[in-house]
Specification:
It is a single chain. The strands form two sheets. A five-stranded parallel β-sheet has the order 1-10-9-8-7. The chain has a five-stranded parallel β-sheet with strand order 2-3-4-5-6, with helices on one face. The termini are far apart. Helix 3 packs parallel to helix 5 and helix 6 crosses helix 21. The protein is α/β, with parallel strands linked by helices. It contains 22 helices and ten strands. Helix content is 51%, strand content 7%.
């Protein structure tokens, strides 16, 4: 029988002759062919194991999608709470199984809608939340013990969580029954998005306060969703997406342990948001590599002993940065294989972009199609019948090993700098992301990387129908009037008392969450609450020393 090494040599000779006639394209990252030589020496139990068992390469649940499908979400939020509430009810009626809340920019940076800096941004890229009254309307008629809610909020994450707890209480739902996630990943804001409020160190305190409070009072709540997604969308590579997010998470864990918390208690509340990009097999391998590497980090570096503290539980949002305004219907196909790669990679929750997002806010039709894309994969494609069906592929296993190794090397370099905060201070992560983003864009512009409809097979048929959702310029007026009405009928003495108590807690070392919950219950505004915390913590200006 022919030896594989001899066979490979003979094959390479044939390749040389073939390439003389049909020269290969230059843009590939992968090798030409993968064989057992690329995975030799791999120990199955060490590298793969079984689903639901360490190192979780093959998935975090023993039966995965055979027993329970991933949570299907649609990222939605626009204008006022009433309008977004109507969209949520529409999507839930269409079969969505979890909510994903998009906040407008003023809410993300802790400003009320009537703040001069909010002008032109109220309700534009998400829903405006000024007070508990808005949160009550946002979830009106939606029982919070029946849905899982993800909130994309970072700087004021603790405040929005306090509002959610207060709404649940008004519905008669105890905190221990609440399920969901606050993003609460402040470090990635300094390197990828910019919606920070306070300097990093007091911001880290707010993060660890939510860890401690939720582990005791809201045990089913994910206290942080580490934002690998935003790092990738800001220009990072797939390896950088893992490495930089993991380094940020390491910083959170170290801060929580320093504050006296036990890793087995708070780590089960850590969840993740990753992207699903266009490179199908790399994305599948990325999720598998990330699960294995995270399990090893938690076990070997932090001494985690319970399985849930070692599991990488992932929410995926398909990549919006790769969608094109040209020939937008092509995005339907792009989103489909992005979502398929996430499912084959073993994720737990997903939201798909709508095909028209490069042009406007999604219409009801496009938002429904994004949800139907997940449902089609779940119920008609057959990929959910067996767990981790890509396991054993020479290519996928070699990619999994490679991505894990390269991510580990990045983490080691960041550790040598003093950790994530130090690396951010030095601009290391930002520089690496910018370099990759430049390279990626240059490849598109010089034609090395093909983007259909943009630099190849382009045409003038790039328009979409005229029913795009556009910003309603009257949203701000309606929202401000509503907030002023809330202020007029609230007990202002109770508001001032709650804010004074919050300020005192911020000046000391008490957990801030009970004081935030008390403040939102008095209908103190988001701006008032964040204003008090700014008085104590200060306000971060980009480029300042940490």
């Amino acid at each position: 029988m022919r030896d594989i090494n001899d066979g490979m040599k003979e094959y390479e000779e044939k390749v040389k002759k073939a390439c003389e006639r049909f020269p290969e394209r230059k843009e590939f990252r992968a090798k030409r062919v993968y064989t057992p030589l690329d995975v030799q020496g791999n120990d199955y139990m060490e590298k793969l194991g079984f689903p639901g068992e360490y190192p979780f390469t093959r998935g975090v649940q023993p039966t995965m999608y055979r027993g329970r499908l991933w949570t299907m979400r649609a990222y939605a939020g626009f204008a006022t709470a009433e309008e977004t509430n109507a969209r949520y009810k529409y999507l839930l009626g269409a079969g969505q199984t979890g909510l994903s809340v998009a906040m407008d920019l003023p809410t993300q940076i802790g400003l009320d809608s009537d703040d001069p800096l909010s002008h032109g941004e109220v309700g534009k890229v998400g829903v405006a939340i000024d007070t508990l009254a808005d949160m009550e309307k946002l979830f009106d008629g939606i029982p919070l013990d029946k849905v899982s809610t993800s909130m994309t909020i970072n700087g004021p994450a603790a405040v929005l969580l306090a509002m959610y707890v207060a709404v649940a209480e008004k519905q008669g739902v105890p905190p221990e029954k609440l399920r969901g996630t606050i993003q609460n990943d402040i470090l990635k804001e300094y390197i990828a998005r910019g919606t920070y409020i306070f300097p990093p160190r007091p911001s880290m305190r707010l993060v660890t306060d939510t860890f401690a409070y939720c582990s005791q009072n809201i045990p089913k709540w994910n206290t942080i969703s580490v934002g690998a997604y935003h790092i990738r969308e800001a220009g990072a590579s797939d390896v950088q997406e893992i490495a930089f997010a993991f380094s940020n998470a390491i910083a959170y864990i170290e801060a929580a342990i320093k504050a006296g918390q036990h890793v087995d208690k708070f780590a089960p509340g850590i969840s993740w948001i990753f992207t699903a990009g266009l490179d199908f097999f790399y994305e599948i391998a990325k999720f598998r590599a990330a699960r294995r590497l995270w399990a090893k980090l938690m076990k070997e570096r932090f001494g985690a002993t319970v399985a849930k503290a070692m599991m990488l539980r992932v929410h995926v949002h398909t990549a919006g940065s790769v969608l094109t305004a040209q020939q937008p219907l092509n995005n339907v196909a792009r989103i489909t294989w992005q979502a398929m790669s996430a499912v084959l990679g073993g994720i737990q929750s997903m939201a798909c972009c709508a095909y028209d997002e490069a042009l406007s806010l999604p219409t009801e039709e496009s938002a429904t199609l994004a949800l139907r894309t997940q449902q089609l994969i779940a119920y008609e494609s057959g990929v959910t019948e067996t767990i981790d069906p890509m396991a054993g592929s020479y290519y996928v296993e070699a990619l999994t090993d490679r991505i894990e190794r390269e991510a580990e090397e990045y983490i080691h370099r960041i550790d040598e700098m003093g950790g994530a905060v130090a690396a951010i201070e030095k601009g290391y992560m930002q520089g690496e992301m910018a370099a990759h983003a430049y390279k990626y864009q240059k490849e598109i512009e010089d034609g090395t990387r093909t983007v259909i409809g943009v630099n190849k097979f382009a045409d003038d048929n790039s328009k979409i129908k005229d029913d795009n959702v556009v910003a309603d310029l009257g949203v701000a007026e309606r929202q401000i009037a509503h907030t002023n009405a809330v202020k007029a009928r609230r007990d202002n003495a109770a508001v001032q008392k709650s804010l004074a108590e919050l300020k005192k807690a911020c000046e000391g070392d008490e957990n801030t969450m009970p004081y935030l919950i008390n403040a939102v219950k008095t209908y103190a505004t988001l701006g008032e609450i964040c204003g008090v915390m700014k008085e104590v913590f200060g306000e971060y200006q980009g480029g300042n020393a940490f």
